[in-house]
Amino acid sequence: MRVLVATDGSPAAGVAVDLVAGILWPAGTSIQVVEAIGTGVTPLVGPWTSASMIDSQRLEARLREVAQATVEEAQARITRGEREVTASVLHGRAATAIIDAAEAMPADLIVMGTRGHGSIESMLVGSVSGEVIDHAPVPVLLARDTTIARVILAWDGSPCARVAANAVRTWPIFATSSIRVVSVADIDTPWWTGLPVVGAHDAADLYGDTLDQARRIHETYATEMVDELRAAGLHATAERRVGDAATEIIAAAREADADTIVLGTRGRTGITRLVLGSVARNVVHHATCSVLVTRDTTFDDPSCSPSASWVEMS
User: Fold this and answer.
1) Are 174 and 148 spatial neighbours (Cβ–Cβ below 8 Å)?
2) 218-256 pLDDT, tens per residue?
3) Do 160 and 274 have their domain in common?
4) Into how many domains does the chain fold?
5) Which of 143, 158, 187 is the C-terminal boundary of a domain?
6) Percent residues over pLDDT 90 in the chain
7) Deepest in the core among 37, 73, 91, 259, taking most CB within 10 A?
8) Which of 143, 162, 182 finishes a domain?
9) Dihedrals φ, ψ of 127, to 5°?
């Protein structure tokens, strides 16, 4: 594997570094640790121009010096045995530089930390990590824990979710993890529930039948994926839930004391690059454990539309 680890020396980035350091990466894995710093001198206009340029150059040199020390320290923490670990200082906007470095590597995975704020129930990703997750064309692991031992795989049977499932099934880093496959029947409750609307009884019966069918479908989804993972030698169990997909995925992770959620989202290429679907975005922003987001950017498949799956484009 080829792994890009983004750091900035913060405690949140330290979690990502410790996670990467503790993972049993397959032989031949190459890991690059990077930190991005802004570049360019913006001189003041006036009699102080020369002095301001010198001060800015000194500041930039100092930033490069500190960043170099940061990536080298992270490199030392990650290096184990025959691991190939390199360290680089990037220049430019942090999110853009990280994404460009991942494309140039080319990386199979980006790992980075996040700065949460507010109550633990409403943690939000920082602006740089949020932008990288939104736009990177490769999987991104947002680290909030230092292990990947207890994993929730969000699964709905769609091609988008298949990419996430394939990562869990084939990446050696999940070989010793306990995998809980969670499939959510996300059926909206009718607005007229509980109101004396004409024909509501028949409609309620139809809604009940639809919900029962969705439950059975997602039960089958989860069970079949568990069989697939077990056939690959993984320890896996199934759980079917009903409700809002993001809410239920986060709740399942909390109840299982999971350290990682893995889920897929639909990606599109183009001038705006990629944008997370609403479910993936909500999980990324509100989960209190690590989140691995994978994408399938090779096609624009209607089966990934909101009507077919909760892994959708916003």
Assistant:
1) yes
2) 789 899 999 999 999 999 999 999 889 999 999 999 999
3) yes
4) 2
5) 143
6) 55
7) 259
8) 143
9) -65, -40
CA torsion 221→287→167→126, rounded to 10°?
150
CA distance 199 to 97: 58
Report pLDDT for 313.
27
151 and 138 together in one domain: no
**Residue 60 — very low, low, confident or very high, per pLDDT cuts 50/70/90?**
confident
pTM for the model: 0.81
Q: Domain check: are 289 and 233 in the same one?
A: yes
Same domain, 58 and 197: no
* Domain ranges, residue 280: 147-314
pLDDT tens per residue across span 173-185? 999 999 999 999 8
Q: Phi, psi (5° rounding) for residue 284?
A: -60, -45
Query: CATH number, domain at 179?
Result: 3.40.50.620
Amino acid at 35: E
Whole-Å CA distances, 293 to 33, 227, 243: 20, 23, 21
198 and 254 in a single domain? The answer is: yes
Structure-block tokens of residue 227: 């069989």
| Residue 129 region by backbone torsions, left for phi larger than 0, else alpha for psi between -120 and 50, else beta | alpha
Co-location of 41 and 163 in the same domain: no
57 and 179 share one domain: no
Considering the domain architecture, whether residues 169 and 223 belong to the same structural domain is answered as yes
